[in-house]
Specification:
The chain is mainly alpha-helical. It has a domain of about 230 residues: Orthogonal Bundle (MetI-like fold). About 65% of the residues lie in helices and about 0% in strands. It is built from 15 helices and no strands. The radius of gyration is 34 Å and the shape is flat. The protein starts with 12 loop residues before the first helix and ends in a 6-residue tail after the last helix. This is ABC-type dipeptide/oligopeptide/nickel transport system permease subunit.
């Protein structure tokens, strides 16, 4: 006689966790589920708010495109009567008393001045503008290149796949900082926009391989076969049917790639292969003021701080998008939420259980049952009258 091994029992907390998660997303579309998960990621929300504040501060303070800002100094202004010998250009920003300062104060030069009397706040804001512009352009160019190469390789396969992937492998073999330095040296004198465009042409390889893997999986799905049978062209199948189903990984990878773009631009500018004068970037400011580390350290405190803040904010946003788009990522509910779910489940079980009959009801049922049986025996032939 064969014995059947029973399936392993679920842990007590597992049904409550699944029930809480399923109840939170019940009746929602896929887009609403992704939005709900993203808004539930605290790090992503903080990163998005801080990045928005940094962007608003950078573009509104000194203006952009001929539009004046609210700050009174331009990045190249030098106040009359400034003596670099007697005036060290220390920051006038005052910390609040609860942080050990003398009180919150903005002052005439909150980030200090350099050895020529130029306002560091205005120069840092211009450097932040440069980093944000380079980040956006590099992200867009890399996304277009990666999607195009990966989609064509994954959809057509065969010789097209081999040619595109071998070209991608060739780009990957070169260290990114080396090829970026060579291209940055060639395009740095042409301006920030050309530099961002050129660098975006070499950072798309990871995204291309990811898109190729997604398209190799999607091209075997039933809806792609149905579109092909219906007479849809390859371009329509790729753009209308397959690409929307691969947008989750594409968005996540592009966001993380933009964070790496900020660090790449800062690194190249620090080494002298990126942004060139008269343009200003955060990495170039750190490079220009590195000799003042001991005498005027605030000259590169602020550029370095803004590099870290921008990169971390974009990374936090990318982590939130990854958790929102990945269905395997589950948010573990708190102990209070699990206890409430367990209590609600017990109450629902009690409400669904039928009430047991009382002693009188049981006796009445037995009497009625015996009466029916006696009546059937009396109706049978030969029964007693």
């Amino acid at each position: 006689m064969t014995m059947t091994t029973p399936p392993p029992a679920a842990t007590p907390d597992e049904p409550h966790e699944n029930g809480i998660e399923n109840r939170d997303v019940a009746g929602l579309s896929q887009g609403r589920i992704v939005l709900k998960r993203f808004l539930g990621h605290r790090g992503a929300l903080v990163g998005m708010v801080v990045l928005a504040l940094v962007t608003i501060l950078a573009f509104s303070s000194i203006g952009v495109g001929g539009i004046p800002g609210w700050w009174k100094y331009a990045p190249g202004d030098r106040p009359a009567g400034f003596d670099p010998v007697t005036d060290r250009g220390a920051p006038t920003l005052g910390l609040p008393t609860w942080l050990g300062g003398s009180g919150l104060a903005w002052g005439d030069a909150p980030f200090g001045r350099d050895n020529l009397g130029r306002d560091i706040f205005a120069r840092t804001m211009l450097g932040a503008q440069t980093s944000l512009i380079v980040m956006a352009i590099m992200g867009i160019v890399a996304a277009v290149m990666g999607i195009a190469v990966g989609a064509l390789a994954g959809y057509y396969r065969g010789a097209t796949d081999q040619a595109l992937m071998r070209f991608t492998d060739l780009i990957i073999t070169f260290p990114l900082i080396v090829i970026g330095a060579v291209l940055g040296k060639m395009a740095g004198d042409s301006g920030v926009y050309v530099l961002a465009l050129v660098l975006g042409l070499v950072v798309w390889t990871t995204l291309a391989r990811l898109v190729r893997a997604e398209f190799l999986s999607l091209r075997e799905r039933e809806f792609v076969d149905a579109a092909r049978v219906a007479g849809a062209s390859d371009t329509r199948i790729i753009l209308k049917h397959m690409l929307p189903n691969a947008m989750g990984p594409i968005i996540v990878n592009t966001t993380l790639l933009m964070s790496a773009a900020v660090l790449l631009e800062a690194s190249l500018s620090y080494l002298g292969f990126g942004v060139k004068a008269p343009d200003i970037s955060l990495g170039k400011m750190v490079s220009d003021y590195q000799s003042y580390f001991q005498t005027r350290p605030w000259l590169f405190w602020w550029p370095g701080a803004f590099i870290i803040v921008i990169a971390l904010c974009v990374n936090f946003i990318g982590d939130g998008l990854r958790d929102a788009f990945d269905p395997r990522q589950r948010k573990i509910p708190s102990l209070r939420a699990m206890n409430r779910a367990r209590l609600a489940q017990q109450e629902s079980l009690v409400a669904a259980t039928p009430a047991l009959p009382t002693g009188a009801d049981v006796a009445g049922v037995d009497v009625e049952k015996r009466a029916r049986e006696t009546g059937r025996r009396d109706d049978e032939p030969g029964g007693t009258a």
